[in-house]
Every structure is written in structure tokens, then in C-alpha cells.
Amino acid sequence: MSLQAQPYNFHIQQQMYQKGVKHMCDNGVTHVPTKYILPEPERPRNLAIDGCIHLPVIDFTRLQGADRPQVLASLSRACQEFGFFQLVNHGIGNEVIGKMIDVCKRFFEQPYEERQRYMSSNLYAPVRYGTSFNQNNDSVFCWRDFLKLSCYPMQDFSSLWPSSPLDLREAVGDYSTKTRDLYQSVMEAILESIGVTNESALCEDGNQLMMVNWYPECPQPQLTLGLPPHSDYSLLTLLLQDEVEGLQIQHNAQWVTVKPIPNSFVVNIGDQFEIFSNGRYKSVVHRVAVNSTRSRLSIASLHSLHVNNNVTPSAKLIDESNPILYRDTNFADFLNHLSSSDFKSKRFLESRKLH
Ligand SMILES: O=C(O)CCC(=O)C(=O)O
Ligand SMILES: [Fe+2]
């Protein structure tokens, strides 16, 4: 190879990575390029070796009935010990969920030119197609393409959602409305479980963002990750995963794989709620492992405070024995953190801790 050929190839490869993993797979990739290879200690172990975990299960129907006090107690334990739970009997119909999963898969199966229309490196863009975690900054890329859709208020955003597949806007509209209603009921229960009521800013008028994650089959899944360890900048995330496992959470200093339960949501506490609860409920670090035989789709509905609102520890949870632990924060702080190069070495939440 001539001396000049190297930088040229390097440039071509960089362009290829920026187009995403689906594009690379469509072009017949047979091994994981160096750009995606993690240092050994950060690599996942075989999914079959890492333990599986059955997260606490919360039955939404029981939450609405005479059993509410017992279910609230289980909810409180789950949010303190795991930061995660699985929500069953949530009332969102199979057709709404099935249509959403199907249309999202069809979005990613379109030719690159169609998906690329929504590509943007601007983290503020309300609709954005992209790859990796933060492709502007990631030194090691991850095996994931995504479509981000701002969803609330819907009339401000729905005309910006992809126009192809033709039924995408209708499916996202139905799904985001239903998940938003479900979020409000679950958040009311979470607030009640922590002994704080009348917090309408946490239930209404906030921000709703849909992250549709596509993890194509990966030829060497033991070398890379679909998503690196992170916690969500949200109050609460409602995650829908298809039947393919891959989500791992950190529990008792171990990575454990969450076993998908059909027709359920994985719900997790985000950074904003950990701050609001002054650390009582935990925003837990999680990551995604990929596999060599099956692509995987997940759809995270992230519910946060309105972008202009500060999140601050609730005065009702602060007293002499529970001193305030976090500084106030807002969405701009988070985006600054995300675009700073040191975000991997320090978690956003850590940067907000007072002591
Ligand atoms: O794909 C998953 O299971 C998790 C996705 C996730 O953590 C996220 O979108 O923040
Ligand atoms: Fe996440």
C-alpha cells in the first residue's frame, strides 16, 4: 500500500462508519472494524454466561384496584433496589404496539438514501437519524443505528417525522399518545409511592422523546456493544423491546441480562427523577449487547421535564437527616455534558452531585 493510499482509505472508512451499521451490513461486512472494538475490560461476555435477571414485575391492573397499597410498596422497592421494573397488563393494545414495531423495522429496512434524509449531527434536532451513541464524539463506535423523534406537543413535530414508510406518522402518533397516558399514570403511582403528591410538572406538559434503536446482526458480538454503559436523562423511560434479548443492567456490581417478557414494558428511573427524589430512587446504568444471529429493535419513550424547567430535589424529601445531594440542573446542562469529550469518564449524574 502506498503512503498516500492510507489516509484516503481512512477517510473512506470514516464516511462509511458515519452512515451507520445497517449500511455497513448491507455492504457485506464480515468482521467488526477496529473503530467498533472495545478495550477488553469493556467488552460484554457471552450473553449465555452473564446471568439473567427477572426484574420485579408490576401489574398495572392491580395498581388501579384494591391492591394499590401493596403494589405501591413493591414499586418503591423496585425503584430503590433496581431502578428498573417490568410493567405487565398495561392496557396498551397489541395492535398499537405491533404496528409501531412493524413500521419502525420497515423504516430501517429502507435504502440508506431514504433514511439519510433525516441524518443530522445537531443534538438539538427534533427528528434525527444517526448511529452509535454520539457519533460526533465517540472514540469507539457502537453497533446501533437510531431514529429520534420528538413527540410532544405532537402538532409541533408530527409533520417532521419521516414520511416513509407511509404509515409511520399514524403509528407513531397512536403509540406516543398511548405511552404518554401510561407514563402519567405510572408517574402518579411513583410519586405516591415516595410520599410526594401534587407535582403536576412531573406528570403533565413535559417532554416526550422516542428513541427507536436498531441493532443489526453483528459478526463478532463479543468485541463491541449496541449501546455503551449509560443512564437515561429522563424522569422515567418506558422501553419496549422485541423478543430478542440484549439489554443488560448493572446490579450488585454485575452486568445482568433482562429477560424480555412478551407484551410488557421495561420501565426505568432516569437521572432527573433520581435528582428529584434526592437519591432515593436510582437511575441505574445499563448497556446493550448485540448478537450474531438476530437483529434487535427497541423503542424507548423518554419522559422528561419541559426543556426550560430546572429539576431540583423535592423540598418534601429534604430534612436534617436527608441533606440535599444534587445541584439543580436543566436540559442545556445535559446537552453540554453530552457534547463534551469527557462524558464517558464522568457520568452526568456524578457531575450533579454536591458531595
Ligand atoms: O435497547 C435497549 O434495550 C435499551 C435502549 C436504551 O437504553 C436507550 O435507548 O436509552
Ligand atoms: Fe437507556
Structure description:
- Pfam families: 2OG-FeII_Oxy (PF03171), DIOX_N (PF14226).
- Residues 205-305 form the Fe2OG dioxygenase domain.
- Keywords: Cytoplasm, Iron, Metal-binding, Nucleus, Oxidoreductase.
- InterPro entries: DIOX_N, IPNS-like_FE2OG_OXY, IPNS-like_sf, Oxoglu/Fe-dep_dioxygenase_dom, Plant_2OG-oxidoreductases.
- It is found in: Cytoplasm; Nucleus.
- The chain has 355 residues and is an alpha+beta fold.
- It is globular.
- The chain has 12 helices and 13 strands.
- A hairpin with a 2-residue loop joins β9 and β10.
- It has one domain (13-351): Jelly Rolls (Sandwich), CATH 2.60.120.
- An 8-stranded mixed beta sheet has the order 2-3-11-8-13-6-5-4. Strands 1-10-9-12-7 form a 5-stranded mixed beta sheet, with no helix packed on it.
- The site of fe (ii) ion has 4 residues, from loops.
> What is the CATH architecture annotation?
Sandwich
> Number of DSSP helices?
12
Portion of residues within helices: 25-40%
Radius of gyration: 20 Å
What is the CATH topology descriptor? Jelly Rolls
* Mean pLDDT metric: 92
Number of extended strands: 13
Q: Bound compounds, please?
A: 2-oxoglutaric acid, fe (ii) ion
Please report the distance between the alpha carbons of the first and last residues.
54 Å
| Highest-level CATH class | Mainly Beta
Protein name: Fe2OG dioxygenase domain-containing protein
Domain Fe2OG dioxygenase: 205-305
Pfam families: 2OG-FeII_Oxy, DIOX_N
Keywords: Cytoplasm, Iron, Metal-binding, Nucleus, Oxidoreductase
